[in-house]
Automatic annotation (TrEMBL), chains A, B:
The lineage of its organism: Bacteria, Pseudomonadati, Pseudomonadota, Gammaproteobacteria, Pseudomonadales. GO terms for molecular function: 5-(carboxyamino)imidazole ribonucleotide synthase activity; ATP binding; metal ion binding; phosphoribosylaminoimidazole carboxylase activity. ATP binds at residues 98, 138, 143-149, 173-176, 181, 204, 255-256. This is N5-carboxyaminoimidazole ribonucleotide synthase. It comes from Pseudomonas linyingensis. Catalyzes the ATP-dependent conversion of 5-aminoimidazole ribonucleotide (AIR) and HCO(3)(-) to N5-carboxyaminoimidazole ribonucleotide (N5-CAIR). PROSITE patterns: ATP_GRASP. Residues 102-285 form the ATP-grasp domain. Keywords: ATP-binding, Ligase, Nucleotide-binding, Purine biosynthesis.
Length: 360, 360
């Protein structure tokens, strides 16, 4: 079976590493000459809306999937004429636009911070009155890793904020005094079977995910599964979906969804019986889903900007390096380490070992 | 770091799957147009003794390693002029020739079945008198999976046996009434650090490995480590080496060594903290070695001739498919399943599940 992937970054690379042992081959559509997934499959180097290359991809592969959600709607529609596409166009339409996304949460009764659609400065002024300050102005599309957003704390911050974010459609979100951020990675098969990984505690630094720690028997697991299950069912979703929540007053408020394998699920490569990458491929290929159970206690630390010396990373017990083969650049995710330890105390010690390398 | 691999079969493929997350790139020299490792790296399609392509490989890579031992000595000597080669030429010289191999065991005080060098039929006749029947006549080089050998039970079997095996240099081995076959996979770093995986019980069918089960606290572990350690030290070996033994009267008799990652170590992909593939790459690259400890109870079943339907394989709990992406052909190793279970009873049940698929 040949899988077409829109995007050829590290997520595509890890999909190929998981799918090759299942007998799958891969083709990646990515305009970047140095797309790091290209080492593991065919690289169609073209723009995401290039019809000739999209057609070529559709002709070559058995199905198409995505490693990022900001794919133009026309790309998805075009591909869908010729080849099965998972997750479906509607899932991508919702997930790539914060307004559609939050509106879906609201429609499904999933708690989420107060929000308002902001199409111009007047909308923003009005929304600030309604929602209050502090609040966060976010572009509806194309935001990631803290990009495309601005925290508004004082009335002066509101002035000209819409223009500052590029005068593109935005939403204003009420600022939530959260005690923590958690994510739930879920997978749903073509037949509707759904499985959930354990909730993961996430820590961000400068808006970029830094550390994810998989939980055991988290008291909010069942609630999170209920919320995520509603979205998966509503979208008739196929594949892996990650759902980020704020922990607020012992409950959850929905932040956002990613219709793809997700950074907060990278620990599953060694830390779960079947990784998010393999499970995504199983789902889109119509195969039975794999176990989402943990193997030991597990965490993931991102390497941002550079990967520490490989000999030092692999010298740490319980540590598994995942180097993305990308050029080092400030703020860029270039690798991660999965830790898999026998108990939490050991895991916490190993996390410190890796952190010391990153800081060193 | 770019690694050159002589051979582009499934062992090369699994080396690349293990090395890519370490940030390594791969080039495979293999004359076969459909070499299955080629999906994961550059494919230099040329004969193993083609000097132009060997030179190209040496120029492109940081070091060269092997996925099979029957590499011409001149190939190794040629490459060694330009690039580090691991394991060393002497290790390959010994391991690819049963006469040198057995002689080394004898020199190092490692028990091995009685053996004699057989360069013509007269040698064979003489050796049969000395060693007795039953005995096994084996070609000194190029034998694998039961090929290149003939069991001699009666005096009539001896007549013309040397010609039957092609009139090439052979050894005669005394037949050993063994109670089981075990192998020890070891890894030795450039600095001499050595680690051993748990002993593995192997079952062969028609001379081809069928099932490997990793042991826990095997009473012969320390003895096997002693024997294997002697060979590793003598050869100043770098990389993974597999050592096959017969279990005889509660002791071990050396059968053969393979100077490479080995089929009886495939279970380590999921079943050990660090797989034999990653540890081989760590060793040859001069990185610290990884833990050889087991994760749960583990076994490996080969798929020979064909891989059962993928949906049925992955539906088995605890089962991890490794499809080699090779054309199916009778007698050919085309994939394997690793089982990793929480206890031995569960593992035994899962082995039966996979066996039922293979037979079905």
């Amino acid at each position: 079976m040949k899988i077409g992937v829109i995007g050829g970054g590290q997520l595509g690379r890890m999909l190929a590493l998981a799918g090759t042992p299942l007998g799958m081959n891969f083709a990646f559509l990515d305009p970047a000459p140095d797309a790091c997934a290209a080492a593991l499959g065919e690289h169609l180097r073209a723009d995401y809306s290039d019809p000739d290359h999209l057609r070529q991809l559709a002709d070559e592969v058995d199905l198409v999937t995505f490693e990022f959600e900001s794919v133009p709607a026309e790309t998805v529609a075009f591909l869908s004429q010729f080849v099965p596409v998972y997750p479906c166009a509607e899932s991508l339409r919702i997930a790539r636009d914060r307004w559609f996304e939050k509106s879906l949460f609201k429609d499904l009764g999933i708690p989420t911070p107060a929000f308002a659609n902001v199409l111009d400065q007047a909308d923003l002024d009005h929304a600030v009155i309604e929602i209050g300050l502090p609040a966060v102005l976010k572009t509806r599309t194309l935001g990631y890793d803290g990009k495309g957003q601005k925290v508004l704390r004082k009335p002066e911050d509101v002035v000209g904020a819409f223009a500052e974010l590029g005068s593109v459609p935005c939403i204003l979100e009420g600022f939530v005094p959260f005690s923590g951020e958690v994510s739930l990675v879920a997978v749903r098969g073509r037949d509707g079977e759904t499985r959930f990984y354990p909730l993961v505690h996430n820590t961000h630094v400068n808006g970029i995910l830094n550390l994810s720690v998989a939980s055991s028997n988290h008291p909010l697991q069942a609630l999170a599964e209920d919320y995520v299950g509603r979205v998966l069912k509503q979208l008739d979703y196929v594949g892996v979906l990650a759902f980020e929540f704020f922990e607020v007053d012992g409950g959850l408020k929905a932040n956002e969804i990613a219709p793809r394998v997700h950074n907060s699920g990278h620990w599953t490569i060694e830390g779960a019986e079947c990784s998010q990458f393999e499970n995504h491929l199983r789902a889109v290929a119509g195969l039975p889903l794999g176990s989402t159970a943990k193997v030991g206690e597990s965490a993931m630390l991102n390497f941002i900007g550079s990967v520490p010396p490989v000999d030092k990373v692999v010298a740490i017990d319980d540590c598994h390096l995942h180097h993305y083969g990308k050029a080092f650049k400030a703020g860029r995710k270039v690798g991660h380490a999965t830790l898999r330890s026998k108990d939490l105390a050991t895991l916490q010690a190993r996390i410190k070992d890796v952190e010391a390398l990153i800081e060193g």
